[in-house]
Structures are given as C-alpha cells and as structure tokens.
Amino acid sequence: MNKMREYERGREDGLDLALRIVKQGGIEALEKEIKFRNITGVHTSLATKDLDKASQKIKQMTLDTFTILGIAVLHDTFGFGQIRCQRFMDGMDNSAPYLGMMASEGGQREEALIEHGCNYYGKTVIRSAPFAIFMRQDILTLALEMEQWYHDHLEYFEKKFHEQPYGRNKDGSLKEYVPVDSIIPIIYGEIQEDDLGILRTTGAQRTGCEMCGFGIHLEKRPHRFDRLRERNPKAWEFWMYRCCTDPKTGEKYGWGRVLDYIGVEWEDIPPVQMTIFDYPELLPEEKQAWRR
C-alpha cells in the first residue's frame, strides 16, 4: 500500500513538473527535459535549469575550497608570501589550464615536461603542470596532509563560507556550513598503506573521461567499464548500448560494439576474487592491527 502511495505521489509530482516546464518553454522544453533525464538518470522534482543553478553553487564552493587549501599549503609549508600567493590566485582566474601531469608517469609526458618544464608558453598553448616534479607518493601524502588540515581548521572554512554570497540566506542570515566528509573524491576510495608502506588508493588509481576506452585492452577485470556499472548503472547502459546511432540503419549502439570487436569482455559481471582480508577473524594479530 505504501509503495502504491509513493508511486501515485511521484506520478502527481511528475505531472506538476511537466506542466510547469510546458508553461515556461512549450513542448520542446519538455522534450529536452525528458532527453536530459534519460541520459543522466536524474530523478528529482527540479527542472534542468534549477539543477544547473544548484550545481553552479556546488562547483563554486569546490573551487573556493581548493583555492583556500592550495594557498594555505603554499603559505604554511612552502613559505609563499603575499605576492606569490596573490599570483597563484590570479592564475586561477586566467584561462591557461593547470594540468595534473607528472613526469614520473613516463612516456611523452615525461619528455615534454623535461623539455619545457612546469610552465610552458608556446605560440598557441599556455599551460602549467605544477605537479610535474613530484612522484605519486608525494601527491598521496599531500592529499592525506590536506585532509587532516581541512578537518583541523573547519572553523576557518566556515568563516570563509559565510563571507561568500552563497553563504547567506536572502534575509542576510547565515546558512549552516556543512563540512564534507573528505576532500578526497569518493571515486578514489581511501588512501591506505600496503604491506610495503606504499600509499595506494582503494578505489580508482587514476581517472579521466568517463567514456574513454584508451588502453582498455590492457586492463584486467574488473576494468573501468565494470567499475562504471557499479558506480552509475544508468551511465554504463547509455555508453555501452546507445551513445551512437548507425547512420545507415538508425540502430543505437555504444562502446559494447567496440569492445566486442577488440575482444574485451564487458557484458557479464566479473567474479570478485576473495582475499584473506574478507575474513578478519582468521588474520594474525599483527595483520589485524595493520588493517585497523
């Protein structure tokens, strides 16, 4: 009975939202809204423009948090003064991209970064790669230190939040500041030490475009598209089955056709290899302490 009430309530909310969209933008606006939701899998009583408005605030808060953390580390750890910190802030406002490339990744990136250095000024390209000289262990160590610094200075971020326009209500009163659980993106999981004392992420080791298949044939399962299915089934279904249209037949297809052609399995759910860590009661005491 409760499920039926929820279904009826959801249907009524959907009809009300559809009516508002048609009144504001006509049938075409409703068609665009339906197309947007089919692709993204977003189920909410908010229209697309309202979602965009809300996401802009989230993006701005994320950028502000990154900027504040970056300046704090540059000032406290590396001794940057006011002039160099301001130069860093000015650089965040310019159009030149900051890239996370590291020479330790090898290949063309290593060659380019050794030849041109961290900051490259070409005829048509300007880019900065501030992490170029660091190793992966350096970055993961920095992430842990920044995570600790963030949680030790929540009052500082709360103050900065309330100084921003989005930190206040329309009547001028302060909004509640809700700290994030972690500044490390959830897709990476946690940063932990292995038996050799090497820092590793429990989730993705590195990330790129969600639909990129470059190098997929070199990965063991579960590969990137398997993990995408776990993380976002709607997006996986779109990219695997219907992100492209055959110009001759009109048939929808996706990455699945490409993976079949190159012999990469993807449609079945791969088995997960169990490890001794799945049975903590059987672990030696020193291993249990390490896992804690």
Please provide a written account of the structure.
Helices cover 51% and strands 5% of the residues. It is mostly helical and 292 residues long. It has a two-stranded antiparallel ribbon with strand order 1-2. A two-stranded antiparallel ribbon has the order 3-4. A two-stranded antiparallel ribbon has the order 5-6. A hairpin with a 5-residue loop joins strand 3 (191-193) and strand 4. The chain is globular and about 60 Å long. Residues 39-43 and 286-292 have low confidence and may be disordered.
Characteristic terms for this protein:
292 residues; mainly alpha; 10 helices; 6 strands; globular
Layout of helices and strands, plus pairs?
Layout: H1 2-40, H2 48-76, H3 82-93, H4 107-116, E1 119-121, E2 126-128, H5 136-152, H6 154-163, E3 191-193, E4 199-201, H7 224-231, H8 233-241, E5 244-245, E6 252-253, H9 255-262, H10 285-291
Antiparallel strand pairs: 1-2, 3-4, 5-6
Helix pairs in contact: 2-3, 7-8
Quick gist of this model?
With 292 residues, the chain is mainly alpha-helical. Helix content is 51%, strand content 5%.
Mean pLDDT metric: 79
The percentage of residues in β strands lies in: 5-15%
User: Could you give a short account of the major beta sheet?
Assistant: 2 strands, antiparallel
Roughly how much helix do the residues carry, as a percent range? 40-55%
Strands, total number: 6
Shape: globular
**Gyration radius, to the nearest Å?**
24 Å
* Helix/strand structural class: mainly alpha
Strand order of the largest sheet: 1-2
Distance N terminus to C terminus? 44 Å
SSE succession: HHHHEEHHEEHHEEHH
Number of helices: 10
Sequence stretches where pLDDT stays below 50 over 5 or more residues: 39-43, 286-292
